[in-house]
Amino acid sequence: MSMIRDLRAVVRPSRVSLRKTSSTDYDTTRDPGTPSAVVDCAVYRDGARVQTPKPLTPHEAMRQVRRDGGFVWIGLHEPTEAEFSGIASEFGLHPLAVEDAVQAHQRPKLERYDDSLFTVFKTIHYVEHDELTANSEIVETGEVMCFTGRDFFITVRHGGQGSLRTLRHRLQDDPELLAKGPSAVLHAIADHVVDGYIAVADAVQDDIDEVETEVFSPGRKGSPRGTDAGRIYQLKREVLEFKRAVSPLLRPMQLLSERPMRLIDPDIQKYFRDVADHLARVQEQVIGFDELLNSILQANLAQASVAQNEDMRKITSWAAIIAVPTMVCGVYGMNFEHMPELHWRYGYPVIMSITVCICLGIHRTLKRNGWL
């Protein structure tokens, strides 16, 4: 139970033979106004961060680990191929995983390369908005790619969201947990990402409830002809983006919790089951969102169809009323010499009175039947 509390407090291939390089082989240069891709690089030993007089390069950090033990945690943000090639060579990362990490836009997954694990997470951020429109952006996505080894942990982040700085500080405040090694960091990131999913799911639920209330409100103002269809469709697109992040991740989390792996500490592995359970709940919510939005969209279209039918009935009713004076005027406009009441003094008022009475009778009948 103490381990669970600790974990909660923190987050609310054999190596391919590649050319080894020295520290001078790292190409980490960018444009003068562009910061380095390496956000943080630190060595952790016995659960504590090893303090150094100056920031370490990945080569220096790995050299310390091989000499004194512990593990190195390197955080990168949108590295270029040149910036990442030296690190990939130093740690023996598989070329396919390196290619995925640099190019981004990957599906959530877990891949094993003998002495390393490559995990891809999609991060989701809810975009606050005052009013939901047909063009509102509801969720923003990013990516966190993790390389987990026996003595190293590398994170490659893409997108403006999903910073791990706060998570790193929280882990550093819990030496007992951090002493479990890279697998503890992997669990913390997985739990952090899934907790973000839960928060976004709650916010999206509020947006769906708002649209549902407006669609089914009996006294809502405005025309139902497509007024909400654009908003509903936009919500469906954002939920689909959410679903693409959540659904593929469930199987990797189940594998991490069920299958023994040399790189995952046994004390940590069982807690991936908790992450998988939370992820399964979010997946059920997202699937429910999609089905509910389908129902709301169909109901909105049905309302639009009913409104159009009501308009057609009203138009038809008024056309029927107008047809009476049109017919009478048409008959008496034919200029025949011998026509009934044509030369009678009271013919005009009588014919007009009869026409008005017929029109009023038709109007009353149609109104009683709900056509007007």
Structure explained in plain terms:
- With 372 residues, the chain is of the alpha+beta class.
- Helices cover 55% and strands 13% of the residues.
- The chain is built from eleven helices and seven strands.
- It has helices spanning 2-11, 58-68, 81-91, 95-103, 165-172, 175-178, 182-216, 229-258, 266-269, 272-332, 347-368, and strands spanning 38-45, 48-49, 71-77, 109-112, 116-126, 139-149, 152-158.
- Strands 2-1-3-7-6-5-4 form a seven-stranded mixed β-sheet, sandwiched between helices.
- β6 and β7 form a beta hairpin.
- α3 (81-91) packs antiparallel against α4 (95-103).
- The relative contact order is 0.10.
Q: Treating each run of at least 4 consecutive H or I residues as one helix, how many helices?
A: 11
Helix content: 55-70%
Which consecutive residue ranges, at least 5 long each, have pLDDT under 50?
A: 1-5, 7-34, 221-226
Mean pLDDT: 82
Q: Which of globular, elongated, flat, extended, rod-shaped describes the shape?
A: rod-shaped
- The fraction of residues in strands falls at 5-15%
Trace the largest sheet across and list its strands. 2-1-3-7-6-5-4
Task: Please give the oligomerization state of what you see.
Answer: single chain
Q: Say how many strands there are.
A: 7
Alpha carbon gap, first and last residue: 69 Å
Spell out the helices and strands N to C: HEEHEHHEEEEHHHHHHH
Give the helix/strand class: alpha+beta
Largest sheet, if any?
7 strands, mixed
The gyration radius over C-alpha positions equals 35 Å
